[in-house]
Amino acid sequence: MRVGSTEIALLKGDITLCDVEAVVNAANSMLKMGGGVAGAILRRGGQSIQEECDRIGYCPVGGAVITGAGRLRARYVIHAVGPRMGEGDEDRKLSDAVLNTLKLATQYNVKSLAFPAISTGVFGFPKKRCAEIMIGTTIDYLLRERTSLEKILFVLYDDETYRVFEEVLNRRPSQRTR
Ligand code: AR6
Q1: pTM exceeds 0.85 for this model
Q2: Is 178 within the bounds of a domain?
Q3: What residues make up the domain containing 78?
């Protein structure tokens, strides 16, 4: 799908192998990289990413911070802090995490970005609602703002999550312009 001059696409697989300028991590507020996407980024990218996170120290839920990407092919990791299911106001917090990631990427002049399905693993957020919020927030941002982003990928780890994102993206009109 195209929105203005930005392409949105879905991929199935491991986000750490993506050939993009910035990979988005599904982070927690303390910026401690545990399992899931964070664990995979840490294993492949190396400890320098966690060390940079430790220097930053904290990010509120709904926020995002940027670090280098260690040994990953990418240049940056953007750590987006999604909500933990049950803590309250989860939809707005997820939408804010996506929006703040897109703003940060634009600020750093990033041209290609890969998102995972934030909060749908350890944090227990429902996949369909996640797809609606992440895709909806991204499209709204692209319709409203000028951005350096030419390509935004949603990288889904398993068949079920991929199918859910595909269904939500296919419901949207195929061409949108500013
Ligand atoms: N590439 C793409 N997607 C992945 C990968 C991968 N390599 N590995 C898992 N997923 P999660 P959260 C999917 O748990 O729910 C960590 O401990 C996974 O199937 O990574 O936001 C952090 O340190 C799921 O659909 O993130 C935080 O404390 C999605 O990515 C906490 O988990 C997100 O799962 C964050 O939890």
Answers
A1: yes
A2: no
A3: 2-171
Structure tokens at 116: 């995972």
Q: Write out the two tokens for 111.
A: 């041209």
Residue at 161 is within a domain: yes
Q: Is 53 in the pocket of ligand 1 (CB under 6 A)?
A: no
CATH code for the domain of 19: 3.40.220.10
The total domain count for the chain is 1
Name the nearest CA neighbour of 107 among 147, 150, 154: 147
For residues 78 and 101, the answer to whether their CB atoms sit within 8 Å is yes
Hey, which of 19, 23, 37 would you mutate to test ligand 1's pocket, going by the most ligand atoms within 8 Å of its Cβ?
37
Q: Decide whether any atom of ligand 1 lies within 6 Å of the 6 Cβ.
A: no
148 Cα: distance to centroid of ligand 1 (angstroms): 26
The pLDDT tens digits along the chain (178 residues) read 999 999 999 999 999 999 999 999 999 999 999 999 999 999 999 999 999 999 999 999 999 999 999 999 999 999 999 999 999 999 999 999 999 999 999 999 999 999 999 999 999 999 999 999 999 999 999 999 999 999 999 999 999 999 999 999 999 765 444 4
